Amino acid sequence: MIVSRKKPVEELLAMLDGAKKIALVGCKSCAAACAVGGEKECNEMKALLEEKGYEVVGIALPDESCQKMLVKKEVKAFRDAEPDAYVSLACGNGCQTVAQNVSAPVYPANNTVFMGQTERVGIFNEMCRMCGDCVLGETGAICPVTKCAKSLVNGPCGGQKNGKCEVNPDNDCAWILIYNKLNELGQLDKICSVKPDKGYAEHSWPRSVNTKEAK
Q: In a designed cystine with 146, which of 8, 38, 85, 129 is the match (CB 3.0 to 4.6 A)?
């Protein structure tokens, strides 16, 4: 189980600045269980965005927003509508999965907090460190905290060689991936913005979230 909490509305609206047509992608699995990305929450987000003057072209609710081929099938429904941006109401993994299947920017509506136990063994690619302070809206929906071996949030270390990480040459340099993605999206100005270093002192483990607590 991946646990997420909603981002403050003002943070999401700031990311959407300049966009007019929005597509929403939720998740019937973890996000629905956490009450941040199921059908109810997607409809609430649609109403909120429309109230703010955005056109919501539709809602996709894949059974699991981290299933790449499933998401690819779901987002095809938005192709003709040509949304300016997508809002992911899933975890950081789901947000990045949507981004791999569309050409428009994808912005996270949630902060991913932690992952619970999964009993079935499979093959997985780590995409989200669940830091609880998502920066995907500034990095082309590619997570530098996870994909960079040093978790650098303000550009590469300078040690990459031929586009590969100096720590593990089998991995692509995260910041070259981010640069290329932002360039593709026409958002290269974002790579020049200075982001505060990640601070983890406020977190203590193990953590818990009670979705029944007063909101």
A: 129
The residue-averaged pLDDT of 211-215 equals 62
Neighbours of 107 (CB within 10 A): 26
Q: How far apart are CA 95 and CA 88, in angstroms?
A: 5
Q: How far apart are CA 165 and CA 97, in angstroms?
A: 22
Q: Is the pTM of this model over 0.85?
A: no
Cα 174 from chain centre: 15
For the segment 74-98, the average pLDDT, to the nearest whole number, is: 96
CA distance linking residue 57 with residue 172, whole number of Å: 34
Residues 89-130 have pLDDT tens digits of 999 999 999 999 999 999 999 999 876 544 444 556 778 888
- What is d(CA 174, CA 147) in angstroms, rounded to the nearest whole number? 5
Q: 């994808």: which residue's tokens?
A: 106
The secondary structure of residue 151, as a DSSP letter, is: -
Q: pLDDT tens, 3-33?
A: 888 999 999 999 999 999 999 999 999 999 8
The full set of domains in the chain, from first to last, is: 1-115+128-134 (3.40.50.2300), 142-192 (no CATH)
Contact between 112 and 132 under an 8 Å Cβ cutoff? The reply is yes
Pairing state between β 85-88 and 106-108: parallel
Q: Give how far Cα 4 sits from Cα of 92, 109, 164, 183, Å.
A: 9, 10, 31, 29
